[in-house]
Amino acid sequence: MINLYIDFDGVIMNTIEITYKILKQKGIDLKDYNSCKRFYQQLNWAKVLKNSSAINDSWGCIARIINSQKFNVAILTHVNSLAEIEEKVKVIRQHFRDITIIPVPKSISKTEMLKAEGAVLVDDYVHNLKEWEAAGGYGIRFDLDMDGKGYPVIDRLDVLVDMLD
User: Fold this and answer.
1) pTM exceeding 0.90
2) pLDDT tier for residue 66 given thresholds of 50, 70 and 90
3) Longest Cα–Cα distance in the chain
């Protein structure tokens, strides 16, 4: 079976869209690393997740991926605080009781948390895919505009069932 890691923000749920709107409302520049870090650490993740929605039936797609029995599926997500981990786990557990959830502190590469070699990462952030492939993994970009930026690209998770035979 293939080890398949799926990013949460911007792949499963549209939390990035929600948080970027709040950042704009608060006048925080995305290029201001310290202000953004503070913002994400203090963010009310329960509220963000309540106002977020699944992207292209992501929960149903993940169920179809699991049911295909082709993959060991885990959710691999960068986090900024314990509160963020707690709230994401609550949301994920509403859909799946036994899926593996791997929270990664934002300051650490996803490749430092587990063995990327031979495994697949679906992520919307190209930098994560570059690191993943440098560590011997296979990166797939998730993008609603289907802009792969040099990577295979999908806009719906369940296409992985046929894509990765």
Assistant:
1) yes
2) very high
3) 46
